[in-house]
Design goal:
This protein is 57% helix and 12% strand. By secondary structure, the protein is of the alpha+beta class. Among the domains are: 160 residues, Helix Hairpins; 157 residues, Glucose Permease (Domain IIA) (Distorted Sandwich), CATH 2.70.70.10.
Length: 461
């Protein structure tokens, strides 16, 4: 089996074969395209409302976003590699078991064929002509029939196992190819990550003075807060529109199904009525027929070829896109007040409501943490934003339902995409100092109906 796998892996046709993983990946990217375009339009719209004055952090945007993407891709590839390796091990074990079963079945079949050959092909004829007790003859014939059935059953099972071995071999080859793809993508992402890290380090060195000056500007902090508020408002509108569009789509599908069911019911009633009328005519004809005479059959109406009615098609709906609707029921998040776990381990260096120099008050908290520290979702929900944003760096926002949102900023990497559902405590990002922040850590907010509220009353710090 190993030799067959090695030969298959080295063949040109195997190298060019498209795996199930590639097809699923292409489908997922196609589904994300719609919501990605709408989120990008929101980001650009917010940027257009600001003045055109250059911000030093903007020059870091592309590099910091690329580093985040590379880190997320590496994490996803590692998880996928583990799952594929486990699947490959299971398939190999299954293949070994199938080969052992086939060997045993071949031995059994060989033994049956040998016994059948030694006994001769006229066993039944000899038995019938032997003149023995008919009961014994019948019993022996039954036994022969059972042996023949066992042979047929064994042959069928052997064919099925051989087909399963072939299918197992295809799955093993597909898993091997997927591992090759993953390894290649990992190498590409590692190279990209190192390049982007070098680019960011050079930019930070060149921009250090400008970044330091701009951090002290009160109006810049005010614009950051306005930008966040605008993003939250527009995301709320987008989610509401998406939910309404999905409601209309489901209503159209339900209406189409109901119409089809009603038409089918009407056709069934018409068929039943026609059958009842025919039966009644036949009954009356039998009653009116004279004894001893053959009833004259009622002339049948000329048959007309019935044109098949086309099945009603459901209303055309656009290809499904990634949903941004809340993943948790309304009220679920509110019940967790005071019991949420911290999003990251570290010391709180800025609290909600404290003044930021001459600028506005903090709308959230800043938790100082080493770069790369795991950032976890504080509650179940769905990611509605995962992108770089001026003033907040790599920013991820989770909708928990009931108009409650949690916000995680300044991350070095975002490990989830818009539309992803997350569990409480699931790792969604890595802490960092993106967006022009001086310290490494996490900026964290909780918002209700778009307004920031104090996380200290919700999270057990």
């Amino acid at each position: 089996m190993c030799a067959l796998l090695a030969l298959a892996l080295s063949s040109p046709s195997y190298a060019q074969r498209q795996t199930e993983r590639s097809r699923q990946k292409a489908t997922a990217e196609k589904q994300r395209a719609g919501v990605k375009q709408r989120l990008e339009a929101i980001r650009k719209d917010i940027a257009r409302t600001e003045d055109a004055r250059e911000d030093a952090a903007d020059e870091l945007a592309e590099s910091e976003a690329a580093i985040s993407d590379a880190n997320r891709a590496l994490r996803e590839l590692a998880e996928e590699q583990d799952a594929t390796s486990t699947r490959l091990h299971d398939l190999s074990t299954q293949g070994v078991r199938l080969q052992e079963t086939i060997v045993n079945q071949k031995k059994q079949l060989s033994q049956l064929l040998r016994e059948h050959y030694v006994a001769g092909n006229e066993d039944r004829i000899k038995l019938l002509l032997s003149g023995d007790n008919p009961n014994r003859i019948n019993r022996d014939l039954q036994m022969m029939a059972y042996v023949s059935q066992a042979q047929a059953k064994l042959l069928g099972s052997l064919r099925a196992n051989l087909a399963e071995v072939e299918a197992n071999r295809d799955k093993v080859e597909n898993a091997q190819l997927e591992l090759q793809e993953i390894a290649q993508e990992q190498q590409q992402q590692k190279t990209k990550l190192e390049q982007e890290k070098g680019k960011r380090a050079a930019l930070l060195q060149n921009l250090s003075t400008r970044l330091s000056d701009q951090r002290k500007q009160a109006d810049r902090l005010q614009r950051d807060e306005e930008r966040m508020t605008a993003l939250v408002d527009r995301l709320t509108i987008l989610i509401r529109e998406q939910a309404e569009a999905e409601r209309r789509r489901q209503a159209a599908l339900a209406a189409a199904k109901a119409k089809a069911a009603a038409e089918e019911k009407a056709r069934a009633l018409a068929r039943a009525k026609a059958a009842a009328e025919k039966a009644e005519r036949e009954r009356i004809a039998r009653q009116n027929a004279k004894p001893g005479t053959k009833p004259v059959p009622e002339p049948e109406p000329p048959k007309v070829a019935e044109q098949p009615k086309p099945e009603p098609k459901p209303a055309e709906a656009p290809a499904p896109e990634v949903s941004l609707a809340p993943a948790a029921p309304s009220g679920a998040f509110a019940s967790l007040k005071g019991r949420l776990a911290p999003p990251v381990s570290g010391a709180i260096v800025a609290r909600f409501g404290a003044r930021r120099g001459d600028g506005p008050a903090w709308k959230g908290i800043f938790i100082k943490a080493p770069e790369g520290s795991e950032v976890r979702a504080v509650a179940p929900g769905r990611v509605v934003h995962a992108d770089w944003m001026r003033g907040f760096g790599n920013l991820i926002i989770v909708d928990h339902g009931g108009t409650y949102w949690s916000t995680y900023g300044n991350n070095s990497a975002l490990l989830k995409r818009p539309g992803d559902m997350v569990r409480a405590g699931e790792v969604i990002a890595s802490a960092g100092n993106t967006g022009g922040n001086e310290q490494s850590g996490l900026y964290f907010e909780i918002r209700y109906r778009g307004q920031a509220i104090d996380p200290a009353s919700w999270v057990k710090f």
